[in-house]
Amino acid sequence: MNVLSALPWWVLVPGTLLVIATIAFLLRSMFEILLGSSKSQAASFAAPLMPALGVLFAFMSGFAITAMWGGHTAAELTVSKEATASDQLAWAATARNVDTQSIQTALVRYIDSVVESEWPLQSQMSQSLNRQSADIKNLQQAVRSSASDPTVGQADAAALINGVDDLSTQRAARLGASKSSMPLALFIALVVSGLALCLNALFVSVAGERRSRMVTYSIIVVVALDLAVLLILAGPFTGSQQVSNSPLIEVREQIITGQMSSEVLPN
After folding, report:
1. Is 10 exposed, middle or buried (0-12, 13-18, 19+ CB in 10 A)?
2. Where do transmembrane segments lie in this chain (predicted)?
3. Residue 202: strand, helix, or coil
4. For site-directed labelling of 154, which of 21, 76, 106, 147 has its Cα 20 to 30 A away?
């Protein structure tokens, strides 16, 4: 499922529609051959099941989509908090007697490692990222070394320590969020319930008129679209609908352009 969820939406949507429609047409052809003169009787048995199967699929798909979107929202909030912690640490490093250049350089290197190295690996569920990377360790050492300087004020030292600790906490939260994905069992249950709904609709319309067949085809389209949306939202850091790292990049740009400096910038 990870391979499917990593595909862009413009591949998933038509691909899912094609697969579901192909299966539906094959099943319809098979039913017409197998049922023969019993088409009307099969339709009478299948019709009462339509509301129950429809409600079941709607409930399960609605629950899954809501849960997946909630996971995306939580991951976005985590990245935003990590960027905020980086911003606060960068400003704390501009206090008097603090080694601003050392801390901000280590912070930029940390953000670079997150954007260039960690971000691509987060989309691969098989890859495990350590909570303590070399860059976050170097940043912590630079901060604690500067905070232990006796010439640094107590409040400024506390702001530095709290800032780097908060950044480390938010990084761990992001790594935890990157491991969240839609359970395979839930997706299989959704596929089975969706196919059951399509199959039952085919039974109902197998002896019906063109209008009833159009209703069946619309059900197939809805099922395919729901499954495609679930694959698109399967993980917060996979596929085309993934969490952006732009908040971290913005902090990096502010640091390297000198916007976070102890010097007063001219208007």
Report:
1. exposed
2. 6-27, 48-69, 184-203, 215-237
3. helix
4. 106
The Cα 157–Cα 75 span in angstroms is 30
Query: Count of H helices and E strands in the chain?
Result: 11, 0
For the stretch 24-56, what's the b/e string if a residue is b when 16 or more beta carbons lie within 10 angstroms of its beta carbon?
beebbeebeeebeeebeebbeebeeebeebbee
Residues 6+ apart with CB under 8 A from 199: 27
Closest to 98 (Cα-Cα) out of 36, 47, 161: 161
Which backbone phi and psi does 208 adopt, to 5 degrees? Answer: -90, -175
